[in-house]
Design a protein that fits this description.
Elements: H1 9-18, H2 23-41, H3 49-64, E1 76-80, H4 107-115, E2 118-123, H5 157-164, E3 170-175, H6 181-187, E4 190-193, E5 213-218, H7 221-231, E6 261-264, H8 275-290, E7 294-297, H9 306-321, H10 341-352, H11 355-368, H12 374-394, E8 400-404, H13 420-424, H14 431-436, E9 440-447, E10 453-459, H15 465-475
Parallel strand pairs: 1-2, 1-3, 6-7, 6-8
Antiparallel strand pairs: 3-5, 4-5, 4-9, 8-10, 9-10
GO cellular component, one term: glutamyl-tRNA(Gln) amidotransferase complex
Subunit structure: Heterotrimer of A, B and C subunits.
Family: Belongs to the amidase family. GatA subfamily.
Length: 490
């Protein structure tokens, strides 16, 4: 029973259902793994074995008495530190919320509790979800399980690393410009960013409200399918949620690529891609053609504007959303030496926020200021429509789009921290998806010559998650896409 942590999500679900092992066995196996790996990976912000074990005991009792509340009863899940759990600290990895305990559950947490999932501790992240490496956390830097000298991606790097390292089979993250897909790619696992509005954001601490979306990580595709099936749907507490098309997990299954129209990127302008990512992309396109797919090269030139559009909109919304953290209502309060209200604001925010958060607040405040609103934020919103129309045009021609998730594999810790622009460019292939609100998933696609994972991103039209996840299942059956997750952390 000691190495249950090596099982895929599907095997865990099957084994619990058959009674091959208990939820307590499972939780203890994961905690043994956490005790062994956490000092090197630093995926979690705390450990609370007793609380998780008690939840597992209650789940096992339900199974013994024939009162199992769902097929997921007793499965462990981890959550990112910006998703509210009643009575638990929700700090967003920021000093300003270091001791804040949420008075309520996020809708996604309520839905998981209703199904009997067992909660492992909160995972590390870039402060307020602002970053691509988890180096912006106020508390610790998470490392990549494949090479602990490298970053796991961000901002949901803690959740991705925890799944990749076998510390939990599934986890939740949030994706504003690639914060689920990019770390999923760099850590060799599955990560889904759903259609905007498919999953409630109630209880997600906002970074950029028109871009944020909660989504799942898993060590196999079935975990993504199951979590999405539980979490998606209309929520009266979040008026941006929509019913959209119905979703049935039983309809998600591998299908033939024959006749499928796959949109691909021209690679003659991929100068910033690492050679290993470029080779993997070319090999995958050839394999798809062998399977009968029809490849169509699309014009992605409009998407070259995605990074500036994204950072104008995201920082403007972050400036507005983070204005509530002022030292008055909740969170850190540093009394100003002068006793003036303005000084209290300045001291609390100066000491509570990290450098990257301050940078984005300043940029967003500037773009919203009098005389600059129309020139920057207003123009970015108009350009955003252009991105969405481009996707609408694409999906009149193709069924699915295939791209690399990240232009490179995981880079070294500290490599890009002194150059924010280079860090921002890590999201160059993912931000357009959030601007358009379409769904996308990062799928494991093999490893490079250094043993580092490479991920491929599939994108479909709005509310086409059934097709998207079916395509992802099919992609996993192509040659040389399997990634074996680390059994020992070096």
């Amino acid at each position: 029973m000691k190495e249950l942590f090596k099982l895929s999500y599907s095997k865990i679900k099957e084994g619990l259902g058959k009674g091959d092992f208990s939820s307590v066995d499972l939780v203890n196996s994961y905690y043994d793994r956490i005790d062994e790996s956490q000092p090197k990976i630093k995926a979690f912000l705390e450990t609370n074995r007793e609380k998780a074990t008690n939840q597992a005991k209650i789940s096992d009792e339900r199974r013994r008495s024939g009162k199992t509340i769902s097929e997921f009863d007793g499965i462990p899940v981890a959550t990112k530190d910006n998703i509210c759990v009643s009575g638990e600290i929700t700090s967003c990895c920021s000093k300003i919320l270091e001791n804040f305990r949420s008075p309520y559950d996020a809708t996604v947490i309520s839905r998981l509790k209703d199904k009997g999932f067992v909660f492992l501790p909160r995972t590390n992240m870039d402060e307020f979800a602002m970053g691509s490496s988890t180096e912006n956390s106020a508390f610790q830097t998470t490392t990549n399980p494949f090479d602990t000298t490298r970053i796991p991606g961000g901002s949901s790097g803690g959740s991705a690393a925890a799944v990749s390292a076998g510390m939990v089979p599934i986890a939740l993250g949030s994706d504003t410009g690639g914060s689920i897909r990019q770390p999923a790619s760099l850590c060799g696992i599955w990560g889904l960013k759903p259609t905007y509005g498919r999953i409630s954001r109630y209880g997600l601490v906002a970074y950029a409200s028109s871009l944020d979306q909660i989504g799942p990580f898993s060590n196999d595709i079935q975990g993504v399918v199951d979590l999405f099936s539980v979490l998606n749907g209309r929520d009266e507490k979040d008026q941006t949620t929509v019913t959209g098309k119905s979703f049935s997990s039983t309809n998600v299954k591998p299908k033939s690529w024959k006749g499928v129209k796959v949109g691909v990127m021209p690679t003659n302008k991929a100068s910033d891609w690492s050679p290993s990512v470029l080779k993997k992309y070319e090999d995958m396109k050839k394999n798809l053609e062998k399977e009968g797919a029809i490849l169509k090269e699309l014009d992605f030139s409009v998407f070259s504007y995605s990074i500036p559009i994204y950072y104008l909109i995201a920082t403007a919304e972050c400036s507005s959303n983070l204005s509530r953290f002022d030292g008055i209502r909740y969170g850190l309060r540093v009394e100003g030496s002068s006793g003036k209200l303005e000084d209290l604001y300045v001291e609390s925010r100066s000491k509570g926020f990290g450098d990257e958060v301050k940078r984005r607040i300043l940029l967003g405040t500037f773009s919203l200021s009098s005389g600059y609103y129309d020139a920057y934020y207003g123009k970015a919103q108009k350009a955003r429509v252009m991105i969405r129309k481009q996707y609408d045009s694409f999906f009149k021609e193709v069924d699915v789009i295939l791209q690399p998730t990240s232009p490179t594999t995981a880079f070294k810790i500290g490599e890009k921290t002194k150059d924010p622009i280079q860090m921002y460019l890590a999201d160059v292939l993912t931000t357009s998806v959030n601007l358009a609100g379409v769904p996308a998933i990062s799928c494991p696609a093999g490893i490079d010559e250094n043993g580092l994972p490479i991920g491929m991103q599939l994108t479909t039209s709005h509310f086409e998650e059934e097709s998207l996840l079916s395509f992802a299942s099919s992609l996993a059956q192509l040659p040389d896409t399997t990634i074996t997750l680390p059994s020992k952390i070096q």
